[in-house]
Amino acid sequence: IHIANVTCVVLGRYNDDFDDGEDLADFADDNDFAEFEDVSEDTAAEPETAPPPRGAPPAQPAEDDEDEATVELEEDGQEDGFEDSDTQDQDMYSKYDPDEFDGMEKPSQSLKDPLIIHTVPAHLQNSWESYYMEILMVTGLLAYIMNYIIGKNKNSRLATAWFNSHRELLESNFALVGDDGTSKDAVSTGKLNQENEHIYNLWCSGRVCCEGMLIQLKFVKRQDLLNVLARMMRPVCDQVQIKVTLNDEDMDTFVFAVGTKKAMARMQKEMQDLSEFCSDKPKSGAKYGLPELLAILTEMGEVTDGDLCCGLLTTMVHYITNHADKIESIHFSDQFSGTKVVQEDGQPLKLPETKKTLLFTFNVPGMGNTSPKDMDTLLPLMNMVIYSIDKVKKLRLNREGKQKADKNRARVEENFLKQTHNQRQEAAQTRREEKKRAEKERIMSEEDPERQRRLEEAAQRRDQKKIEKKQMKMKQIKVKAM
Amino acid sequence: YRTRQDEDKRRLNCYPPSTEANPTLEDPTPDYMNLLGMIFSMCGLMLKLKWCAWIAVYCSFISFANSRSSEDTKQMMSSFMLSISAVVMSYLQNPQPMSPPW
Predict the structure, then answer these.
(1) Could you say which residues from 142 to 161 on chain A have a Cβ atom under 8 Å away from some Cβ of chain B?
(2) Which residues of chain B neighbour A173 with C-beta distances below 8 Å?
(3) Using CA atoms, how far apart are residues A404 and A399, in angstroms rounded to an integer?
(4) Of A23, A70, A367, B44, which is least surrounded by CB within 10 A?
(5) Residues of A24-56 as b/e, b for ≥16 C-beta within 10 angstroms?
């Protein structure tokens, strides 16, 4: 009866009207295990049908527990039922009266609805593969760090190689080699001063003919990966820049530059002294016996060219010709003041301070792919630098050249004064007004009326004097004009 | 053969180097990269954009690589820490992996 009740429940889901337990009992009596077979078929078909399976699977174990004898058969029946469930679908329903299922949706329709399987969100998936972008980023960072270490070491090795090959020459010529400027007195450190991962400085001083020499090793930024990639598109050289500052008595007045055509064009625009004094376009080096690729900028015109430039160049020509590929620019000037400063409007200008300077810029061979051995090839160039320091001291302009040079300098100064004339006048005017205002305030603040009156009279007298002076001047000018 | 005249052109009165900073030689890259790094890390934190935070980390690395040795390490470290915190915060708030823009 218990079993019958259970089967009743099971079958009852399909048709609530089907509540006649007796019919069921009759039905079951025909075949001892018919009920179970049908039940098992029904229960097997349940998962695929629309009416949700409610109690069938739990009901089955209950049945199994109840009747041990039937367990095995049931299981077999179940297995069969599950395997053949698809094909038996239609058979199952054909056993029943179709009228029983009026008003119910045909379960077969639901089989056509697609099952939507949602994807598990990536971060819950427990696989590292979904984080490939992050892994890429971290790999990029690691590559950057590796490149930083390698680049830094390479630059450091190049700098040390340069210093080792040049140390002897420098120490024999200068009393002070290497001073980082941190202490007030000049102290020789004997080593390069690292400003950056790619810039090394060396200050040498203590020599006749010059005040001091600043050497800057400007390497390519090997420690920055972006720069390395940019250099693959546009190769750049390592450079050695040397700036020799001279005492006033060590150099005569001339401005002169030689270097690659590009460098000369650029320097003529950028450098204050070259743009002012060397107004002509750069001349080809072939005129002076130098290689074609070099150009020359000089202050003197054709007249005294022969005297100074040639004199200077003939002494240095063998150096320059042999190492023309390494020379970027050589610039000698007694009016050196750096690059053109962008001037703000309304500011009274003073003539920029000038210093007698020799500037050398050399390219390290290798176009970026330099090895420490290449540094030895720069040694002859350093010899040239030392040689030219001594030479410039002895070089003197002839009388014509000197006159021309003086005229040039006077002209430049005059131009400058004219340009700034208006500004200077305005500045003077404002200063005068301020003085008057200050005086008036002082007079006003005086409490004693007597003192006030006296101060006012004094101010008036001063103004009168000024006006008289001006009138005198005007009269004098008129007389002169006449 | 060196004569006595060739020897010792050195003098004892040495001048110290001029300590003026040459503005034309100064490279603005580390300062720009520092600023960019800060902007990107703020964007990454506020707008919860992962790629902003990653770019900020790169910017701070580039700024460090280009910096001068006289520069303050505190500045570098603070920008670096800010960018790392931007990355960490973006992932804590949204652990999903970054999706490529394509």
Answers:
(1) 144-145, 148
(2) 9-10
(3) 9
(4) A23
(5) beeebeeeeeebbbbbbbbbbbbeebeeeeeeb
Report the residue of chain B nearest A341, measured CA to CA. B24
Contact criterion met (CB below 8 Å) for A358 and A387: no
Q: Tell me the ipTM for this assembly.
A: 0.89
Interface subset of A 192-221, CB within 8 angstroms of B = 194-197, 203, 205-209, 211-212, 214, 221
> Measuring CA to CA, which residue among A358, A171, A173 is closest to residue A247?
A358
Of A130, A140, A179, the CB nearest to B16: A179
Q: Which two tokens stand for residue B7?
A: 């020897």
- Chain B residues near residue A180 by CB distance under 8 angstroms: 17
Taking the C-alpha atoms of residue A214 and residue A170, their distance in angstroms, rounded to an integer, is: 12
For each of chain A's 482 residues, which pLDDT tens digit applies?
555 555 555 554 544 454 444 555 555 455 566 666 655 444 444 444 444 444 444 444 444 444 444 444 444 444 444 444 455 555 565 666 767 767 766 555 556 678 888 887 766 776 778 888 899 999 999 999 999 999 999 999 999 999 999 999 998 988 888 887 777 777 778 888 888 899 999 998 888 888 889 999 999 999 999 999 999 999 999 999 999 999 888 888 888 888 999 999 999 999 988 888 888 888 888 877 788 888 888 887 554 455 556 667 777 888 888 888 899 999 999 888 888 877 666 555 677 788 899 999 999 988 878 888 888 999 999 999 998 888 888 888 778 888 888 888 898 888 888 888 877 888 889 999 999 999 888 888 877 788 878 888 888 898 899 899 999 999 888 888 87
Residue A218, classed as helix, strand or coil, is strand
What is the Cα–Cα distance from A473 to A376, expressed in whole angstroms?
A: 69
Q: Which residue of B has its CA nearest to A177?
A: B14
Would the pTM of this model clear 0.90, i.e. be above it? no
Contacts of A171 in chain B (CB under 8 A): none
